[in-house]
Write a structure and sequence with these properties.
mainly alpha; two-stranded antiparallel ribbon; 15 helices; 2 domains; disordered N terminus; 404 residues
């Protein structure tokens, strides 16, 4: 079977593949981030470009320059513009300034084997704390997919970032600082619910969520693929998630991203969809709990793990990145309940996110007989006055007898 086929991309319920690995761990050149070993002091977002120390400022400035040069080399095959390269580099400079980049190389601490950070020998400071103009070099590592390995020499006097000093560029940078927090949280959200930073078919979904954050554009002036992979990919996934949680708790990110903080992770969407449908179904058919006791027992077992604060990453496709606990949802037990929920939605011609849930449809497909029979039973029961009056008693408190 082709490992590049869609079935190996278990994106929140389109397919079910036991042991699906989610985010790949290979290293690609366009994800390399170049920083100095003595990087800038970690500061808050509001101080990101307010650098009082010459040394700190020069570290970030040179970080941007290094990454601009690297991006122009790496993205040449993608018909990248200079604007794309310096925007990516600028975002990387912000990430370094905020302390989101871990250059320690301690992969096991983050549950990954790869690191996108390349350390560059620190520039030497001259008299008075001013940096020298000596050129510094960095090395592009060889790609496993036939890329290149070469050394680049950067000289602050010779290398200029084209377009960086224009009024339009300055305006974009100022606006982007205010959107940077949302950008990081957006990538964290997709890592949680889709198990990848970004894939080709994520663009429309990214744009939809971004507009719900009350931004009047589909992306912040740069394609989401470049933001997720080129600009922010060097941030370890667990750091992404911690930043998202902290930003939500401190109201630093958009409300739409705070609301999505506890979205079910990729690999656990089936539980979330069945749970939502079951709660709705029980309002009109409470005895379904007795009829499908095994399914509700499984829901309770899942809730005791997945709905706990410390169970945030349990059972997820990428759980190894977050030190999440091993947990397997017994979809066989949930199938009859999922089928009834889907049957009820179809019988009522209900449209919406639950009816469109790939995960719910997939699990329901394993119990079509149960779903069809119980749905027909519900349809017939709904035609009886006694059932309807029992659910909707008259407001005057008078009980009406069934005329039949």
């Amino acid at each position: 079977m082709d490992i590049n086929s869609d079935i190996f991309h278990d994106l929140n319920g389109d397919y079910y593949v036991a042991g699906s690995s989610g985010e790949k761990e290979e290293v690609f050149e366009n994800r390399h981030l170049f920083i100095y070993t003595d990087d800038a002091a970690k500061v808050g977002l509001e101080q990101v470009l307010d650098m009082s120390k010459d040394a700190d400022r020069q570290v970030v400035v040179n970080t941007i320059l290094l990454n601009y040069v690297a991006q122009m080399s790496t993205l040449s095959g993608q018909n990248a513009k200079h604007d794309d390269a310096w925007k990516i580099a600028f975002g990387r400079g912000i990430a370094v300034r905020l302390g989101l980049i871990d250059a320690s190389g301690n992969h096991s601490a983050h549950g990954l084997r790869y690191s996108d950070v390349v350390l560059v020998d620190p520039f030497k400071l001259g008299t008075g704390g001013k940096p020298t103009q000596d050129p510094f070099t960095f090395e592009m590592r060889e790609s496993k997919e036939g890329g290149f390995s070469a050394k680049e020499e950067v000289n602050p006097k010779k290398h200029k970032i084209l377009g960086y000093d224009s009024d339009t560029a300055k305006k974009w940078r100022k606006q982007f600082i205010g959107k940077f927090c949302d950008c990081v949280c957006m990538v964290a959200f997709f890592m949680r619910t889709r198990a990848h930073h970004c894939l080709d078919d994520f663009t429309a979904r990214y744009a939809q969520v971004w507009r719900k954050c009350l931004h009047n554009e589909d992306s912040p002036g740069l394609p989401w693929m470049l933001i997720a992979h080129n600009m922010l990919h060097a941030i370890y996934p667990d750091t992404l998630d911690k930043f998202w949680i902290d930003s939500s708790n401190k109201a630093r990110c958009a409300g739409a991203l705070t609301k999505r903080l506890y979205s079910y992770g990729a690999g656990t969407a089936a539980y979330g969809a069945v749970q939502a449908g079951a709660q709705d179904l029980c309002v009109v058919f409470p005895k379904i709990k007795t009829l499908l006791s095994d399914a509700f027992a499984e829901l309770e077992r899942c809730a005791n793990v997945l709905d706990r604060v410390d169970g945030r990453w349990a059972g997820c496709v990428n759980k190894r990145f977050y030190k999440g606990a091993d947990f397997v949802i017994n979809e066989r037990k949930l199938a009859p309940l999922a089928a009834v929920v889907m049957g009820a939605l179809k019988a009522g011609a209900v449209a919406g996110s639950l009816a469109d849930s790939n995960a719910l449809n997939r699990v329901a497909g394993a119990a079509q007989i149960t779903g069809t029979f119980i749905t027909q039973m519900l349809q017939k029961a709904s035609q009886h006055d006694r059932m309807v009056l029992g659910l909707l008693p008259p407001s005057d408190g008078v009980e009406y007898e069934d005329e039949n």
